[in-house]
Amino acid sequence: MGSLNNFSAVNLVALLVLVLISACVPVSASPERTKTVEFNVKPGGVVHTFSQKIREYECSFTYASQGGTNEQWLMSVGLSDDDRLFSCSVWRPQGKSYLFFTQFKAELKGTKIEYANAYSQTAAAGQSDVPLKPEEFTIGDSTVTHTSGKFNAQLSKLTAIGQTRHDEL
Which residues of the chain have pLDDT under 70? Predict the structure, then answer.
């Protein structure tokens, strides 16, 4: 019975994250409001940036990593129907990354971040999302960055939702 309670708690947390993301990306999302793009995370210690844009809103993921070989990752960006929320998720669909990240930063241009979280492992193959400790990363107005000296070099997923500066007339 204890495992059922743990299963329910894990599913509840996963559902909460999904609801937050779903609030930004409607089920009937058009290509103009949401997109998911594959990219390679490359080791070697060199700083790389990958970006995607919807209208004037952009998500940029900047990182440096060591060890292993290239890993296939995904970036999803979405804009809510009322243009008030812009979301960005970057993750390794196979779950845990085997690369050691020396740094990372996600930047949402044209928004103010309302929610963000980073994970050392993503839900895949029966595993659950494992969030980073709060002291491992810093959430700013428009960025989510590793915290020097406290980040443990493990990253497999990063999610941020920002409120746009959309004004009603």
Answer: 1-31, 166-169
Q: How far apart are CA 87 and CA 76, in angstroms?
A: 8
Tokens 């980040």 correspond to 151
Closest to 158 measured CA to CA, from 121, 127, 128, 111: 121
| Cβ within 8 Å of residue 81, ≥6 positions away | 26, 33
Q: Whole-prediction pTM value?
A: 0.80
Residues written for the chain: 169
Name the residue among 20, 123, 134 with its Cα closest to residue 78. Answer: 20
Cα atoms in the Cβ-side hemisphere of radius 13 Å centred on 3: 0
Burial (Cβ within 10 Å: 0-12, 13-18, ≥19) of residue 145: middle
> Judging by DSSP bridges, how do beta strands 111-121 and 143-146 pair with one another?
unpaired
C-alpha 143/C-alpha 60 separation (Å) is 9
Q: Quick check: helix, strand or coil at residue 27?
A: coil
